[in-house]
Amino acid sequence: MSPSNKEVASLIVDYLSQLVEKKAVSEEAIDSLNVAIDCIGESFEVQKGDSKAVFGGKGLVELLQNESGSSSETATTQAESIKVNIPAEDAETKAKAETLKLEGNKAMACKDFDLAIKKYSDAIEVLPTNAVYYANRAAAHSSMKAYEEAIKDAESAIKTDPTYSKGYSRLGYAKFALGQAEDALEAYKKVLDIEGDKASDVMKRDYETAKKKVEQSLDLEKKPETQARGADAGAGGAGGSGGFGDFASMLGGGLGGLLNNPQLMQAAQQMMQNPQAMSQMESMMQNPGVRQMAENFAQGNGMPNMGDLMNNPALRDMAGSLFGGANGNAPNDVPKNSDNGSN
């Protein structure tokens, strides 16, 4: 039960009276205390000594000391009953790791990538639970074109903290550098998913760059099939198999089709060994129309118009002699490339 205001006032009066009796204060202060004792006594209708009967003879100081001791014991008991979890990475450990990271950042700024890798590695050794250190070391590896090592560190960063977008960004960069555009696109997509509306222009640009690369790869995969269908259609429209129709189909793929067509390359080799064919070639090049088409092609103006080629008698005769008809010498099956390495 809490004491009343009158009871508390009696404690104060007794306490102040003790100070006066012991002369614990100056003479001027004693006069002031006496005034205070009279005022409190009149206000609460208490007198000196009233508090002893209420509080069992204990004064204000003793009561406060007992209360303070009880509170301390209670606090100690409560503290003992609460389990305090102290993190493994204390402030000192964190500070040491951060210092090493900053030294690595300075080395990166000076393009001393070996030193940067060492500093980041030291930071990881001190505090292996920080994804930033792995991501920074991945950036240093990429700067040295050690992309496989960069991928390992980027994956470690992601494993340590799956919500740290720079881990995926480092992974995307290394994957893209190794020509793995689809994997890079997936990593950059994850960056945008994590950042959301906070995604920077650089993050968006990286994603678009990888996306464009993937689309270009898909287009290149489709082109050979499209060219093959176009070549077959050109051959059918030029009079069936053999003769100038086969020659037209070879040209259907442009310059790439010429260089990658085994039949044409074999025929060219045979022509180089055939004096009659070479004579026909020299005569044909005297033709102003043929010479003009050749010059246009050499100047980068694209392949000659197929209609012009098919209507040129000189080319038609040469194609007939080189590729023949159904009984020509062009092989039906193209052998697989042998082990011919480039010097």
Automatic annotation (TrEMBL):
<dbReference type="InterPro" id="IPR047150">
    <property type="entry name" value="SGT"/>
</dbReference>
<protein>
    <recommendedName>
        <fullName>SGTA homodimerisation domain-containing protein</fullName>
    </recommendedName>
</protein>
<dbReference type="GO" id="GO:0072380">
    <property type="term" value="C:TRC complex"/>
</dbReference>
<feature type="domain" description="SGTA homodimerisation">
    <location>
        <begin position="4"/>
        <end position="65"/>
    </location>
</feature>
<dbReference type="GO" id="GO:0006620">
    <property type="term" value="P:post-translational protein targeting to endoplasmic reticulum membrane"/>
</dbReference>
<comment type="similarity">
    <text>Belongs to the SGT family.</text>
</comment>
<dbReference type="InterPro" id="IPR032374">
    <property type="entry name" value="SGTA_dimer"/>
</dbReference>
<dbReference type="Pfam" id="PF16546">
    <property type="entry name" value="SGTA_dimer"/>
</dbReference>
<feature type="repeat" description="TPR">
    <location>
        <begin position="165"/>
        <end position="198"/>
    </location>
</feature>
<keyword id="KW-0677">Repeat</keyword>
<feature type="region of interest" description="Disordered">
    <location>
        <begin position="319"/>
        <end position="343"/>
    </location>
</feature>
<feature type="repeat" description="TPR">
    <location>
        <begin position="97"/>
        <end position="130"/>
    </location>
</feature>
<dbReference type="InterPro" id="IPR011990">
    <property type="entry name" value="TPR-like_helical_dom_sf"/>
</dbReference>
<feature type="repeat" description="TPR">
    <location>
        <begin position="131"/>
        <end position="164"/>
    </location>
</feature>
<feature type="compositionally biased region" description="Basic and acidic residues">
    <location>
        <begin position="213"/>
        <end position="226"/>
    </location>
</feature>
<dbReference type="GO" id="GO:0016020">
    <property type="term" value="C:membrane"/>
</dbReference>
<dbReference type="GO" id="GO:0060090">
    <property type="term" value="F:molecular adaptor activity"/>
</dbReference>
<dbReference type="InterPro" id="IPR019734">
    <property type="entry name" value="TPR_rpt"/>
</dbReference>
<keyword id="KW-0802">TPR repeat</keyword>
<feature type="region of interest" description="Disordered">
    <location>
        <begin position="213"/>
        <end position="238"/>
    </location>
</feature>
